Each structure stands twice: as structure tokens, then as C-alpha cells.
Amino acid sequence: MTTIPAYFNILITTIKPINNDIVDNTASNNEYGIRLDNSNNNDIVDNMANNNLYGIYLDSCFDNEISGNIIANNDYGISLYYSYTNDIVNNTASNNEYGIYLYYSHTNDIVNNTASNNDYGISLNYSYTNDIVNNTASSNEYGIYLDNNDYNDIVNNTITYNNVGIYLSNCNSTEISNNYFSGNGVDIQKLEVDDPFPIEVVLLIVLVISIIIIIAGMIISKRRRARAEIQRVPK
């Protein structure tokens, strides 16, 4: 196991692909504060990342623990891309555009974090079967924001003083239970995308087609009768 010592103003990447400890570092004013690519079973613990484009960034990473970090004033605080079965626990993300952000990342646990004064406290896009449990989302534009996600659980969170507490768009089978809401502009906002073919439209189309078929049948029948009358006229 490798332990990376504490430095100031550095970009930290994995020294070897698995089983690293990244502990007690301060990473500031970088494009990436702490970045892991294709790296598994690492502990990213008790670091500070501020004023970076990405505070802590994981791409295609599995089974990592991200805990006890203080993430502030980044564009993206803690962000996971195409990453699975990671634990994001007991972190503080404040004054970022995105406090905690998941993109195409599945089966992760987001537990006991504090996200405050971000544009998006906890945000998931195209991410499935994640657990968002026992977090505090306070004074964000959006406390918890889900867009195009299915089968996620949002349980036992404290969601206060956000413009929108929980926002859902194009989300199916999402459990929202036992959360505490206070002082939000809107506690839960769901954007329902209109069905491109609602039942009323389908019925109208069926009716129009039926009328066309009936009229066409009447015209054909009338023409047949006319031909029959012509054939019966003696020459």
C-alpha cells in the first residue's frame, strides 16, 4: 500500500492503480486537485481541495472510499464519471458549482455528507442504483438534483433552505422517504416530460383513421354500384 504524503498546490494522480492512501493533502489552484483514472480500492481521506476546476475527480474507478475531505470553491467538488461501487462518506462540499456530481456512475453510496452553498448540492446524471442517505443539503440552488436517473434511493436526508430541495427530471423508480425539509422554496419538484403520444392523441388518430376507412369504403361501394348500373343498361 502506498501513502502519498501531504503537499500544497499539487495535482495528485495514482502512483499505482490500486490500494493507495491519499491522505492529508491540500490541493489548490489546479485543473484537477486529486485525480484517479482506472484506479480501484484506494482511500482518499482528510484532504482539502479548493479553487480547482475539479476538486476530487474519479474516472472509471471502482471500490474507492472518499471520506472526510473538505472541498470548497471548485467548479466540481467531488465528481465521478463512469465509476461504480464507491463510498462517498462524511465529506464537506461548499461553495462549488457542483458539490458532489455523478455522471454515468452506478451503485455508489453517498452517505453523511454536507453540501452547502453550491449551485447543485448533490447531482446525478444518467446514474442508477445509488444510495443518497443521511446527507445534509443546505442553502444550495438545488439541494439534490437528479436528471435521467432510475432506481436511486433518497432517504433520511436533511434538506433545508435550498431554492429547490429535491429536483427530479426523467427519473423512474426513485425512492424518496423519511427526508426532513425546512425553509426550501420548493421541497420536491418533478419535471414530467409530456408523453409524445398521450392517450387523447392516440384516440383521435384512431378515430380519424376509422373515418377515413369508412369514407373510402363508401366511395368504393358507390363506384361498384355505378359500374353495375352501367352494365345493366341495354345497348
Automatic annotation (TrEMBL):
Transmembrane segments: 201-220
Sequence ranges assigned to domain Carbohydrate-binding/sugar hydrolysis in this UniProt record: 30-169
Keyword Transmembrane helix found: yes
Pfam families: NosD
SMART domains named in the record: CASH, PbH1
UniProt cross-references to InterPro entries, sorted A to Z: Carb-bd_sugar_hydrolysis-dom, NosD_dom, Para_beta_helix_rpt-2, PbH1, Pectin_lyas_fold, Pectin_lyase_fold/virulence
Keywords: Membrane, Transmembrane, Transmembrane helix
Protein name: Carbohydrate-binding/sugar hydrolysis domain-containing protein
